[in-house]
Amino acid sequence: KKVFFKNLNNGDTVVSPFVVEMGVHGLKIHPAGELKTGTGHHHIIIDKGFMKFGEIIPMDANHLHYGKGDTIASLTLTQGLHQLTLQFANGLHMSYGEQFSNTINVYVK
User: Fold this and answer.
1) Cα dist. 103→8, 32, 82 in Å?
2) In angstroms, how far apart are the furthest CA atoms of the chain?
3) What average pLDDT does this structure show over 44-71?
4) Could you please report the per-residue DSSP string of the chain?
């Protein structure tokens, strides 16, 4: 059971905007809005860590929601080092916690 970046590794250098491919094992992707056991959707948290189990993920510039069930996103970030956390959450945007998060650092040229 885990989430992972399909096309990025910790320490990668990228050019903005860049594509992020998101994957998950152990849970199914389902759009936001409906609470269905064993399902959820991706979030990318920028420059902040994972969210504890059950916490509602806010909607702001640092917490990007992919509630349509998206698995590919395009990010535009400022130059420099950034921390990206992939966080899986249920249909009500409640975090599945550290077990379903993955954090890497990327350098934007």
Assistant:
1) 11, 22, 10
2) 40
3) 98
4) -EEEESS--TT-EE-SSEEEEEEEESSEE--TTS--TTEEEEEEEESS----TTPBPP-BTTEEEETT--SEEEE---SEEEEEEEEEE-TT-BB--GGGEEEEEEEE-
Q: What is the amino acid identity at position 109? A: K
Rounded average pLDDT over 76-83: 98
Stated pTM of the model: 0.96
- What pLDDT does 7 receive? 98
| Cα–Cα distance, 73 to 42 (Å, whole number) | 10
